[in-house]
């Protein structure tokens, strides 16, 4: 290992120790305090011009073009306050005993959908909505579960341990990980997947409508469902006001999510994501650049100034160009 590589490794280790110490301290704070601190962090992101703030407003403007500008900005601000809560509450969700964390679930709507039938496996899709870490813990508490997982650059060991502590097995986003999901479903287990990030593999994705716009969407779900015969549902944990806990929602997947036609299946998957977001749109991860990849090298969405009205104008122009390109195609 060269000198610069050793320095980079030491720097990363030092940063990880600091992060672990910070998370350890935060984990002992009450949920109400963590959410209060998260709101302050959110306001910091709102008040200081930055790309996270811009990207969230661009996405909201793309997905809700009918909203007046002030309502788009208001929804963006609510989203960023929830965004702050998401990251501050991780300390408690990751590091407190699992029974304490699961005790924060106040209600489960659609719980009957989580019941496996006649030993068949069940594919559970959890978008980046509300407290997705809690949704994964709740799923694993229902029975043997394999969760599709992307290894992280920082705190990977901590995250793996946190997700394992209620019994989940983590499968990396590789061919080996997919085999683990298939094997678990064959044993009648749960498979947990985050379905709303852009896949990298060109063979494992298709463009499909999301809020009326083409989004690069995974086709793993329909292939897993066909291969295993497993049902597919959606599940997420809504954050309740005033740190009152969480409400878990289970929703049936739209028809066609197991289609042999990847385009049909991907469109059904995105309809399911839209239905989840509609429950609590302010808790979705709007800063994520969901429309980054475009068909036929179309115009880029996440460009331009970071001012609010500049971001809205960028989104409106991009949406017109994108829909025109779709129509011409």
From TrEMBL:
The signal sequence is none
Q: Which residues cross the membrane?
A: 21-46
InterPro entries registered for this protein in UniProt:
LipA_acyltrans
Origin species: Thiohalocapsa marina
Subcellular location(s) of the protein: Cell inner membrane
User: Could you identify this protein by its name?
Assistant: Lysophospholipid acyltransferase family protein
One short Pfam family name for this protein?
Lip_A_acyltrans
An example Gene Ontology cellular component term from the record? plasma membrane
Instruction: Mention one GO biological process in which this protein takes part, according to its record.
Output: glycolipid biosynthetic process
Kindly state which keywords UniProt assigns to this record, in alphabetical order. Answer: Acyltransferase, Cell inner membrane, Cell membrane, Membrane, Transferase, Transmembrane, Transmembrane helix
**Lineage: superkingdom:** Bacteria
Asked if the keyword Transferase belongs to this entry, the reply reads yes
Give the PANTHER family listed for this entry.
Answer: LIPID A BIOSYNTHESIS LAUROYL ACYLTRANSFERASE, PHOSPHATIDYLINOSITOL MANNOSIDE ACYLTRANSFERASE
What is a single molecular function from GO for this protein? acyltransferase activity
